[in-house]
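Researcher: Here's a chain I'd like modeled. Treat it as a single chain, no partners, no ligands.
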Amino acid sequence: MKALVLAGGAGTRLRPITHTSAKQLVPVANKPILFYGLESIAAAGITEVGIVVGDTEAEVRAAIGDGSRFGVAVTYLRQQAPLGLAHAVLIAADFLGGDDFLMFLGDNFVFGGITEVVRRFTEQRPDAQVLVTKVANPSEFGVAELDRDGQLIGLEEKPELPRTDLALVGVYLFTPAVHTAVRAIEPSARGELEITDALRWLLEGGYDLRASEISGYWKDTGNVADMLEVNRLLLETLEPAVLGAVDEDTEIVGRVRIEPGAMVSASRVVGPAIIGAGTVVTGSYVGPSTSIAENCVLRDSEVEFSIVLADSLLDGVHRVEASLIGRNVTVHVTQRVPVAHRLVIGDHGWVQLPG
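Model: Modeled as a single isolated chain. Structure tokens:
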């Protein structure tokens, strides 16, 4: 079995962060979300991985390399435009050949991995198997309809009036039968080759399609709220350690990891939290569910339930919470002046100011 990992797309819901970074490489618990997927694939025993890339190809290549650090061999497959999941299968046909394969969306997170799912598919070998989970907003996903016996009987892509609350999780397993389906379907109204249309083609053609409701935790980390939730969940499993320098005026509470080269002084850190390598925290409070990446500076600031990316500075800021702060960002407080705001904000930014 091979794996096809999708790491293209514009990441519009994470702008402005994704104007300068691939959405699959935004870190949670100080590790890019794509890394967790590759680790799960390797743990399931799959070693040949095709990564579908787009405009952020150079960044993805630089982060993943040949895949050896994850125990896999990577082949990069360029998709000229985000034309749908079924289109990704179409352009990967030569790489996939006649093998069964797992398709994994690179910005998805499956807690507990996919080893059992892959094992069950390998043993039973239906023509296709999808994973589903109950969501509060099914109209934002592909939606599956099952009969009373749990058999898959219908599929819709982002329907306005969903028949069920079962969303397709971004993990699919296929035999080579899917290649016939992706060549048979037409682009949808939004101009994409939809994987739900390919699955429906197989279903209507009498192929053996099965659906399994995921037993663990799944998130599509396409927006800030979901990124923060996955970050919180992963930090709960963090292996605590103090590998950097912490002075006697600092209080460490709970599950906290301080990476080598980090320096924390006159501060309070309440876990679960992680302080990245080379980061300096002085006179500050770092609260639960917070990831501070490498080479940041926190000075006289408070941050909680947030992700701060590399090389950023928070100086005299009270208080930051439920936030995603990008790379090389400076946030500081000036002395009070007549009411005015001086802003430099990227496209699609969102700012909340006091009244």
